[in-house]
Design brief:
With 222 residues, the protein is of the alpha+beta class. The chain has a single domain, classed as BirA Bifunctional Protein, domain 2 (2-Layer Sandwich). The chain contains ten helices and four strands, in the order ααααβββααααβαα. A four-stranded antiparallel β-sheet has the order 1-2-3-4.
């Protein structure tokens, strides 16, 4: 099974200190090797992922990888490059990141993770999610309280409203869930875990634990 390129973290650490085009152009070949290794890792774990989640069948894994160039048009930070390598394997492709829940992997010095869920879903989707939680609160709680979910993620995460969302009362029995603005499952990773030869198995274990949450959230998009 493919592994993450061993130069990944060293390159990203150096990029963080030298975030300029001259340095990047000098080290472009290193980045391309790291990117190809990352894509190779995704290609290796992908058949096993599809075996239990056919919703991501047909994903273009190359296009699932985020560009390293930052969009600096509206940012005070003009650093041209991201200091991470990341991908989102999602039904409909990475561009559907704001519409579907899938599998997100992010590698960065001190901030590596595998995650899924709905990050700041747009109004129609989050309204549908809240309505679904209201109807199926027992099922939703069973998903986020399942032993495999707790083992891999601890608990659901996300920014919350201070009050009750529109259409719900502050004393609603499910207000603790309905106040979420994002519904995220995040497994933080150490550099040692990521570079281990068994990282592919860890990714698949985490993805299996994530799938029930993804299914619930994606049903709310139908």
């Amino acid at each position: 099974m493919a592994t993450i390129h061993p130069d990944t973290y060293s390159f990203l650490k150096e990029l963080n200190k030298n975030n300029n085009r001259d340095w990047f152009n000098t080290n472009r070949s290193r980045y391309l090797e790291i990117r190809e290794g990352f894509i190779g890792f995704l290609e290796d774990i992908y058949p096993e992922l599809v075996a239990f989640d056919q919703e991501v069948q047909g994903a273009d894994l190359r296009k699932s990888v985020f560009r390293i160039n930052r969009d600096i048009r509206f940012s005070d930070d003009k650093s041209p490059y991201k200091t991470s390598v990341a991908a989102a394997i999602i039904a409909g492709g990475r561009r559907k990141f704001s519409e579907y829940s899938g599998y997100y992997i992010h590698l960065e010095n001190g901030d590596s993770l595998i995650a899924g869920g709905a990050y700041m879903p747009p109004s129609p989707w989050i309204s549908s999610i809240r309505a679904k939680i209201d109807r199926e609160s027992s099922r939703f709680r069973s998903i986020i309280e399942a032993p495999d979910f707790v083992k891999n993620f601890g608990s659901i995460e996300g920014e919350k409203l201070k009050g009750a969302p529109r259409g719900f009362k502050a004393d609603d029995p499910n207000i603790d869930l309905l106040r979420f603005k994002s519904f995220l499952a995040v497994r933080n990773l150490s550099e040692k875990e990521v570079l281990d030869r068994n990282f592919g198995s860890l990714f698949i274990e985490t993805a299996r634990a994530l799938k029930p949450l993804n299914d619930f959230l994606n049903e709310a998009t139908l």
